[in-house]
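Hypothesis: this fold can be encoded by more than one sequence.
Test: take the structure tokens below, design a sequence, compare later.
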């Protein structure tokens, strides 16, 4: 499965319990109100290392979607971008 927009990895940690491999796609360039981006990234890496089945992809949603073969996913969780109508439709189109 792919999680688009992983931030600190809270949902990736849950997904890792139910999927063989969780691919996390994020650019990790904004702390989004957290004290620091470094803390967010450290938190993600702690969860990734503890789970053992999370793969980090530091790239954008559209770029990642282009690398995934059509009809190869069981599940994609889209939670990236600025949550605007435009970016949401762009992500949906790319991953569909």
């Amino acid at each position: 499965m792919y999680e688009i927009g992983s931030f600190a990895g809270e949902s990736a940690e849950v997904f890792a319990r139910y999927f063989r491999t969780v691919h996390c796609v994020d650019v990790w360039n904004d702390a989004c109100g957290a004290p620091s981006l470094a803390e967010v990234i450290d938190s993600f890496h702690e969860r990734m290392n503890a789970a053992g089945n999370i793969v980090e992809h530091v790239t954008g949603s559209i770029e990642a979607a282009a690398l995934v073969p059509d009809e190869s996913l069981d599940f994609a969780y889209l939670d990236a971008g600025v949550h605007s109508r435009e970016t949401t439709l762009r992500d949906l189109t790319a991953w569909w």
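The first strand starts at residue 2 and ends at 4. The beta strands are 2-4, 22-26, 54-58, 76-78.
Hypothesis status: open.
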